[in-house]
Amino acid sequence: MIGKLAAAWLGSKAAGPNQGGKGAIEGLGLAWVAEKVLPTVAAVALLGWGAKKLYDALSSDEPSYPSEATPSSS
Domain extents for the chain? Predict the structure, then answer.
């Protein structure tokens, strides 16, 4: 509730001196959109990051050996 009030206040301040009501409505709308959309976007981004990490780990064709196992060039 406090977040919605803060968003309405910030929206009214950002809209200008003669558009306070319009800015308050826009601020409330933005707060509602952020509340509904941001968790979904964050979850999709996290799943995409994890999927890319898994894909990169599984698609590596080169075997990984410790540095002591490599032949020396001397």
Answer: 2-58
